[in-house]
Amino acid sequence: MSEQSRFMLVVSPLMEHSPAFDQAAALAKASGAALHIVAFDYLEGLATAGMVNEQAREEMRLGYVERHRQWLEEQARPLRNLGVHVTTEVVWVESPLQEILIHLKEQPMAALIKALEYESLLSRLMFTPLDIHLLRECPVPLHFVSHVRHALPRKIVAAVDPFHRDGHYEGFNDKILREASKLASICNAELDVIYAHDLSSISADEFGFESASAFFTSGTAKTLFDAQGDTFRELAERNGIPPERQHMIMGNPAKVLSSYADAYDIDVIVMGRVSHRGMGRLVGSTVEHLLYKMPCSVWVVSPETLDD
Q1: 171 and 136 assigned to the same domain
Q2: What is the rounded distance in angstroms from the CA atom of residue 75 to the CA atom of residue 14?
Q3: Which of 81, 145, 215, 289 falls between 20 and 30 A from 296, CA-CA?
Q4: Within its chain, how far is the Cα of 92 from the centroid?
Q5: In what order do the strands lie in the sheet with 86-92?
Q6: 178-214, pLDDT tens digit by residue?
Q7: Closest CA to 138 of 297, 295, 274
Q8: CA distance 205 to 272
């Protein structure tokens, strides 16, 4: 990340100091980047208060925004004392998604950082949370902060899925590893790479077999496993990942990654987000499956700038 790069930290409208502040500051300090902190405010009760007239309601809104702006400045002061260039902004908007995307278009950022807001399964089934919308639409690396052990990450894992028959996302795994390596370098952190190998997620016709029974013979499965292993090792080696840091683990990707992160006290897992065959493979849907389950923070790489 260049000296001129900037991180954007999106914070809660409730004036709460979350670990995302500390992680964003540590990353900005370590990388020499600036930090722009934005609160997208909207309080339903304040916006629709029926017992006051419109002018009084507007004054209340402006007063809240000003108090939040002052509060953000108070949070920014110790970060500036650390040598981080910090700017703050408060925007009153009911639906922040489009405003966030507009901000990213008008003010290019190296990454968007945000505390993960935990939602119940029922809530996620009823409506799509902002975090999921961002996961699907954010064009820059997206860092969801949760379960923070260290302000500056010490252990980072990159999750890849290099075995695509159609080659549609050829090069995307390299991008994931480049982003993970860059982050590890900034943090002076350990970096491992994992390929969670799961035959059950691969269909027989995808690899030219007429029936599943022919596809899942022991010989065929071993041949496929060996081919995947060769592809994985080639990917890791050309990105400078030493053999002892390469891990090909058989099992459901979501379970493998969550268990590994928990067992080895991982701080951040770097994953790719793409839509592949209706959200079926690791590079893509697994991020949504894992987002609320991972015992660590998640750094999501977008394919939008794949051709950069």
Answers
A1: no
A2: 14
A3: 81
A4: 25
A5: 86-92, 34-41, 6-11, 111-115, 142-145, 297-301, 268-272, 155-159, 190-197, 246-250
A6: 999 999 999 999 999 999 987 655 544 445 544 445 5
A7: 274
A8: 25
Is residue 156 within 8 Å of residue 264, measured between CB atoms? no
Enter the tokens of residue 223.
């041949």
Beta-strand pair 297-301/142-145:
antiparallel
Same-domain check for residues 71 and 133: yes
Q: Is there a single domain that holds both residue 99 and residue 195?
A: no
Query: Cα(53)–Cα(193) distance, rounded to whole angstroms?
Result: 59
**Domain count for the chain:** 2
- The single-letter code of the amino acid at 131 is D
Paired tokens of 263:
């067992």
Q: Is 182 helix (H, G, I), strand (E, B) or coil?
A: helix
User: Are 138 and 159 in the same domain?
Assistant: no
User: What backbone torsions phi and psi does residue 115 show, to the nearest 5 degrees?
Assistant: -70, 135
- Does residue 78 sit in the same domain as residue 160? no
Q: What is the DSSP letter of 276?
A: -
pLDDT tens for residues 236-288?
A: 999 999 999 999 998 888 899 999 999 999 999 999 986 544 333 434 456 87
Q: Which amino acid is at 11?
A: V
List, in sequence order, the alpha helices (H) in 171-295. Answer: 172-187, 212-215, 218-238, 253-263, 282-290
CA torsion through residues 176, 182, 184, 187, sign: negative
Q: Are residues 91 and 189 in the same domain?
A: no
In sequence order, the β-bridge partners of residue 34 are 6
Q: Do 287 and 189 lie in a common domain? A: yes
Across 87-91, 122-126, 247-251, least confident range: 122-126
User: Is residue 111 classed as helix, strand or coil in its secondary structure?
Assistant: strand
- pTM as predicted: 0.84
DSSP-derived letter for residue 18 is -
CA distance 144 to 146: 7
- Look at residues 90, 120, 145 and tell me which one is the last residue of a structural domain: 145
